[in-house]
Design goal:
Blueprint (H helix, E strand, L loop, with lengths): L12 E5 L7 H9 L4 E4 L8 E5 L2 E5 L12 E4 L4 E2 L1 H12 L9 E4 L3 E2 L2 H10 L15 H10 L6 H5 L1 H21 L4 H4 L6 H15 L3 E2 L1 H10 L4 E4 L26 H6 L7 E7 L2 E3 L12 H9 L12 E3 L1 E2 H10 L4 E5 L9 E10 L2 E3 L6 H6 L1 E8 L16 H14 L3 E5 L7 E3 L3
Parallel strand pairs: 1-10, 1-11, 2-5, 2-10, 5-7, 6-8, 7-9, 11-15, 14-16, 15-19
Antiparallel strand pairs: 3-4, 12-13, 16-17, 16-18, 19-20
Bound molecules: inosinic acid (IMP).
């Protein structure tokens, strides 16, 4: 057990995304997880997509914490996660078929909510654009499941899956009610008659996944409390990113959960005083998938180049990501609201070869410099970015392992970003592999 640091204190840590997701959290969690006993997911669901590369193998994880690939660590899916039970089983079976044994290493909170088949259809119908602003969701049923949780009486949790017999009548009536709601939202006959969406189909899916999942379900809050008392170190893994936070992101183009350190206490079920270290993950540039304002977006060949070199295509949906310069305004906001104490800067290698690299340092709205991020998404859409252009670096940096060995322009860029956002960049990633990482504190 990796119990404490040299001061005898536990080193519980949280890893959060500082942008609109896809920052590379999976790599950082996997990298840090070697020093931790427990890795906990606390928000979101299968909307997240974490790719972890180990040698020639690439693992795409959606619901399982990235720590599952570290044998010494127990993985926990916390009460704040919304779990698509069939998707989770598929992921578990996929890993097991590649020799990764999850026995005794995966715990799922009995309080975590279930994403049901009707949530996914509802997500698709709601986000068709005919019911208001089109968010461009991942269609994984995340928003409808969290909304159901708030409605309470019609929601199902992991504990209900374990006690499925006690919940069958309620499931029947919820499925019936959902059918008429979906019909009124314009669902096509074919979707409504899809076996997977009927009460029988839903029940039989739940019966089948129950066999695989029930043994992993427990009161993870009590388990984590014991773990802390026994000196185990906990690593909390956020999904999505701070700019997608339901309260602090670019609403309404956000996800439905708390994505920073603010989400940890309730989403993981631990004391609000537990975590002191929070690693914020940001790319050396910015990306976004789905709709919504993106002030520093590049609409020219520089954005296309970043997309191709950085392989910026969604892990969950395969959609091309929108690309732009790093935005110091939103990053600074994420430092504060995300509780970020240090930054891991990803994809430094992707920017190699550009004559100049830009940083967005402010916004102008209708010609006026503004000192804040507008709440109104139409205003945020309308802001003009103020860019500072700095010299780029031409060398391939993917083999660099020490900060001093980075080209001077790359080091200056990092120093400039630190100054603008008010946090130290402690790790710099120069490629997808675990060892392609520069640790500045070493
Ligand atoms: P939802 O979370 O599926 O409801 O999607 C809401 C918005 O968040 C959409 O713009 C998605 O593309 C975006 N989103 C949600 N999760 C992620 C993620 O892990 N990476 C990138 N974008 C995400």
């Amino acid at each position: 057990m990796s119990s404490a640091n040299s001061h005898g204190q536990q080193k519980h840590t949280c890893v959060v995304g500082m942008g609109w997701g896809d920052e590379g959290k999976g790599k950082i969690v996997d990298l840090l997880a070697g020093d931790f006993d427990v890795v906990i997911r606390f928000n979101g669901g299968a909307n997240a997509g974490h790719t972890v590369r180990i040698g020639d193998d690439a693992f795409a994880l959606h619901l399982l914490p990235s720590g599952v690939l570290r044998e010494q660590a127990v993985s926990v899916i916390g009460p704040g996660v919304v779990v698509d039970p069939a998707g989770l089983v598929e992921e578990m079976v996929g890993l097991e078929s590649r020799g990764i044994d999850l026995t005794g290493r995966l715990l799922i909170s009995d309080r975590a909510h279930l994403v049901m088949p009707y949530h996914k259809l509802e997500d698709r119908l709601r986000d068709s654009g005919s019911q208001g602003k089109k968010i461009g969701t991942t269609a994984k049923g995340i928003g409808p499941c969290y909304a159901e949780k708030m409605l309470r009486s019609s929601a199902f949790r992991m504990v209900d899956l374990v006690h499925l017999d006690r919940n069958t009548d309620r499931l029947r009536s919820v499925c019936q009610r959902k059918r008429s709601i979906l019909e009124s939202m314009g669902a096509e006959e074919a979707s409504l008659n899809d076996e997977a969406l009927t009460f029988d189909g839903t029940l039989s899916m739940l019966q089948s996944v129950r066999k695989k999942l029930a043994g992993h379900v427990r009161d993870t809050t009590t388990w984590l409390e014991h773990s802390v008392r026994e000196g185990r170190n906990l690593l909390f893994e956020s999904a999505n990113g701070m700019l997608l936070d339901i309260d602090h992101g670019t609403f309404p183009y956000v996800t439905a959960s708390h994505t920073g350190l603010n989400g940890v206490p309730s989403g993981a079920g631990v004391s609000p005083h537990l975590v002191r270290r929070c690693v914020g993950v940001s790319k050396a540039y910015a990306t976004r998938v789905g709709n919504g304002p993106f002030p520093s977006e590049l609409h020219d060949e520089r954005g296309d180049r970043i997309r191709e070199v950085g392989r910026e295509y969604g892990t969950t949906t395969g959609r091309p990501r929108r690309c732009g310069w790093l935005d110091a305004v939103t990053l600074r906001r994420s430092v504060v609201l995300g509780g970020v104490t240090e930054i891991a800067m990803m994809h430094m290698d992707t920017l190699s070869g550009l004559p100049e690299v830009g940083i967005c340092t402010g916004y102008r709205l209708r010609g006026q410099l503004i000192g804040s991020i507008p709440a109104d998404s139409d205003d945020l859409e309308a802001v003009e970015p103020v860019f500072e252009l700095v010299a780029g670096w031409q060398e391939d940096v993917s083999h660099v392992r020490r900060f001093e060995d980075l080209p001077v322009q790359a080091r200056s860029y990092i120093h400039r970003v630190e100054k603008l956002v008010g946090a130290t960049i402690s790790m710099v990633s120069v490629g997808p592999e675990r060892n392609q990482t520069i640790h500045r504190s070493r």
